[in-house]
Design goal:
2 domains; single chain; UDP-n-acetylglucosamine1-carboxyvinyl-transferase, Chain; alpha/beta; 24 strands; four-stranded mixed beta sheet; elongated
């Protein structure tokens, strides 16, 4: 099947939902670019603030939320069914009229069909405990969650003192969650068992709505990872006190009142750091190019924003003068060569995927550690599948790739390709993984012959990616 070139497509073809070809050729750049752009807001932050707003006791204003993804649509429908009211303001901003500190569903037995929305499933399964006493919420959750993950949700609800029925059987959907009795408090949880870590953000987010808040005990201070720290910062910004203390890594969330209430708040959702990293990476890969991404990056709560520090090293470091931080933007410029790097991305593995593209055209072998912390996406079941797909594609493009270690300690050693000799056409299928597909597309900016199969797979993560990539050609 003949591939079509990215630069031949019309704006309507490249718009979200446009008619993309089944195979898309990414032509190599012939000159440097200079772009200033916005990227969509972070979806995880949007979902967290929607939940907080829905359970607040007053109106909450969310500015620049990420609403173009499937998860946001599922979340909006679910909180509406549980009694919150959402108004869309000009420019895509939202006003969420909360119904908290307890849900106010119209039906005694509410059913939430959450389809393939993994994050809303985790958040709402625990938040369902805040239904009124005597009411239940049936969760038909995401099929992307494994049997073990569903079992972990059930275990966490019971550990918190809640009641849940495994209607579909152990480790299967649906589950039926019963509303807590009046003035019930969450039982402090020691979350050092398998499967608990992925539920901790959800647990912390419902903490302000229980009388006297909630507490969770981790397996040591080192376990307070980037997702928990981000959630604690978001709680603080919404007006709930979140803090850690003690040698056991105790994390506490304090409600504003003894009854467990949270007042109204205003919050501007940050641009997604992983998506911003795509364009900073593209600039670093292409000598003389510059990418400026708008956003208050100096105060970001996202671990993924740290990718800028790695990319800065790859562009020659601070002394080279290729970076510029302003109150409302951050810029990176590509140096004459891409410097090899050794980076640990376990705190931001999704953002770290794109580093492989820069390493593919570096001046020496590079090492990326921590990609084993990735979750599954698309038809790729987990970190091993995703890293394997990336490694295979880089090898086919002409890189030398060697894996070392396993699990979270796995390291990818990348020997760069020779862009002057590796010019044959290579069709790459990322297995439905948007992050892998976008990283491979960036390699096409330097290496001729890169063709992305099923380019529509990026739509779930970044619907505007191809249109923005087209803009760098001028």
């Amino acid at each position: 099947m003949e591939a079509r070139s990215l630069i031949e497509l019309t704006p309507s073809d490249l718009a979200p939902g446009g008619a993309l070809p089944s195979r898309l050729r990414v032509p190599a750049l012939t000159r440097p670019f200079n772009v200033t752009l916005d990227v969509p807001g972070n979806e995880e932050i949007t979902l967290a603030m929607l939940l907080l707003g829905a359970l607040a006791s007053d109106a909450c204003e969310l500015y620049k939320p990420r609403l173009d993804g499937a998860d946001a649509g599922v979340m909006l429908g679910a909180i509406g069914g549980l009694g919150a009211r959402v108004e869309r303001a000009a420019g895509g901003d939202l006003v969420v009229w909360g119904c908290g500190p307890r849900w106010k569903p119209a039906a005694e037995d509410t059913v939430l069909a959450l389809r393939d929305a993994g994050t809303p499933t985790r958040l709402l399964s625990l938040a369902a405990m805040l239904a009124p006493p005597g009411r239940t919420v049936a969760i038909h959750g995401s099929p992307e969650l494994s049997t073990g993950e569903i079992g972990a949700i059930v275990r966490m609800i019971r550990a918190l003192g809640g009641e849940v029925d495994e209607v579909g059987g152990p480790g299967c959907w649906p589950i039926r969650v019963h509303g807590l009795a009046e003035e019930s408090q969450f039982t402090p949880v020691r979350a050092d068992w398998e499967g608990a870590a992925g539920l901790l953000p959800a647990l912390l987010l419902i903490g302000p709505f229980a009388p006297y808040g909630s507490a969770v005990f981790l397996a040591g201070e080192s376990e307070i990872g980037p997702e928990i720290r981000r959630t604690m910062e978001l709680l603080d910004r919404a007006g709930a006190a979140a803090f850690s203390r003690g040698v056991d890594g105790e994390v506490c969330v304090q409600s504003q009142t003894p009854e467990g209430e949270l007042g109204g708040f205003q919050h501007t959702v940050e641009p997604d750091a992983a998506l911003a990293g795509l364009w900073w990476t593209a600039a670093v890969m292409c000598p003389g190019s510059r990418a400026t991404v708008n956003g208050r990056w100096a105060k970001s709560v996202q671990a993924g924003a740290r990718i800028a520090n790695v990319l800065l090293k790859m562009s020659g470091g601070r002394a080279a003068g290729n970076a510029e931080m302003k109150p409302g933007s951050f810029s990176l410029r590509g140096a004459e060569r891409v410097h090899a790097v050794e980076a640990d991305v376990r705190a931001y593995p999704d953002a770290g995927l794109v580093l492989a593209a820069a390493c593919a055209v570096a001046d020496a072998p590079s090492v990326i550690r921590g990609l084993g912390a990735l979750g599954g996406l698309g038809t790729l079941g987990g970190a091993e599948d995703r890293v394997g797909a990336l490694a295979d594609a880089l090898t086919r493009l002409g890189c030398g790739v060697r894996m070392e270690g396993a699990g979270a300690e796995a390291a990818m050693h990348i020997s760069p390709l020779d862009v002057t000799r590796c010019t044959e056409e290579v069709v790459l299928d990322a297995g439905g993984d948007a992050r892998v597909a976008t990283a491979l597309a960036l390699v096409g900016l330097r290496r001729s012959g890169v063709i992305i199969a099923r380019p529509e797979c990026v739509a779930r993560d970044y619907p505007g990616f191809w249109g923005t990539l087209r803009s760098v050609y001028g």
